[in-house]
Amino acid sequence: MTISYDKFDLKQVINASGRMTILGVSKVSESVIAAQRFGREHFFEMSELAVQTGKYLANLLKVEDTQIVSSASAGIAQSVAAVIGKGDMYHVYHPYTNRLQKREIVLPKGHNVDYGTPVETMVDLGGGQLIEAGYANMCSPEHIEMMITDNTAAVLYIKSHHTVQKSMLTVKEAAEAAHRHQLPLIVDAAAEEDLFQYIEAGADLVIYSGAKAIEGPSAGLVIGKSEYVKWVRLQSKGIGRAMKIGKDNILGFTQAVEDYLTNGSESGDSMKERLAPFVEAVNQLADLQATVVQDGAGRDIYRASMKVNGKKTAKQVIEELKAADPAIYTREYQANNGIIEFDIRSVNQAEMDAIVQRLKEIMEEE
Questions:
Q1: What are phi and psi of 269, to 5 degrees?
Q2: What's the pTM?
Q3: Interatomic CA distance for residues 341 and 100, integer angstroms
Q4: Pairing state of beta strands 185-188 and 205-209?
Q5: CB–CB of 226/64 below 8 Å?
Q6: What string of pLDDT tens digits covers the 366 residues of the chain?
Q7: SS3 category, 157
Q8: How many whole angstroms from its chain centre is CA 59?
Q9: Phi, psi angles (nearest 5°) of residue 31
Q10: Which helix (H) or strand (E) holds 144?
Q11: Alpha-carbon torsion (39, 42, 47, 48), positive or negative
């Protein structure tokens, strides 16, 4: 039976918002599909599959161990549970037990963001008690350390464009602060592209999304110190049971990491080159002014930033772009400032032309 948008009465989507969960994140390659197919067509000892793929990826990433989980969010929850329980089986079966009081997870206040769900929700799910350090616009190593108590289990750091960027301590500084108190540092680097630098900066556990920069299937990856990763793996008998990942996605994701390390991702220079004619075309339209801008968190990602100056507001244009078929999704974070951003990493030339044509129609409508 043929699968199509029409079969389920769905609109097509042009994804100019980036690697976003609400749109299915990213596409996967033929090699990843082949690895998933092998997984679907065969059986495995699942506990051994987790250990052996973890060992294989650890060798590629030059870390002590890794564990594939169902998502980066699951990685946060299971990592929090891991550092609280420290391998204790009673805790695995009773994750919210009062027997263990060392549950505080210290996080810079500007990192307690909503990335689709609040960071604190995943900390709660893991049985942690979130303790905010510093202020919304500032957090130093001293701010972290003044919040550490005898009940602190770990320090958590969110490396993301969603978080406050100014006046924030670095991952290295957070690791040093945590280690001065014999505590682990957990780094959520879900959408980040560098699979090495946060471990090198001193993090004990680092969490990545499988389907964002790596362009794999729905999955997450926890890498780091062997003892901590072992505790994360143990969560499959506890809260991780509700977050389990299938054999096909384990193998597909493993292949995606291998491909990513070999091929990398599209360079910023390539994005700028592809954006140039798009920006030029948008600038021919009435009441729109576009430029090329770099990702706010400093990643090698470039986007078109479009200022809406006419009768319609940026929010109105965004809603009209979504309303058509195909629905065009953009980055909406600066809509209140009259700005719409277009991330073209998953957009081909035909789709870029379609976006320009749709913008022309919207701006000409009365």
A1: -60, -40
A2: 0.87
A3: 46
A4: parallel
A5: yes
A6: 567 788 878 888 899 988 776 766 677 889 999 999 999 999 999 999 999 999 999 999 999 999 999 999 999 999 999 999 999 999 999 999 999 999 999 999 999 999 989 999 999 999 999 999 999 999 999 999 999 999 999 999 999 988 998 899 999 999 999 999 999 999 999 989 899 999 999 999 999 999 888 989 999 999 999 999 999 999 999 999 999 999 999 999 999 999 999 988 788 899 999 999 999 999 999 999 999 999 877 788 899 999 999 789 999 999 999 998 999 999 988 999 999 999 988 889 999 999 999 999 999 876
A7: strand
A8: 23
A9: -65, -35
A10: helix 141-146
A11: negative
CA distance 26 to 321: 20
Amino acid (one-letter) located at 41: E
Q: Which two tokens stand for residue 174?
A: 């957070």
**197, 180 Cβ separation under 8 angstroms:** no
Q: State which H helix or E strand residue 20 sits in.
A: none
> Measuring CA to CA, how many Å separate 65 from each of 44, 51, 70, 127, 312?
20, 9, 17, 23, 53
As beta bridge partners, residue 20 has none
Which residue bears the tokens 């090198």? 200
Instruction: Give CA separation, 357 vs 193, 207, 281, in Å.
Output: 32, 39, 10
Q: How many residues does the chain have?
A: 366
DSSP β-bridge partners for residue 36: none
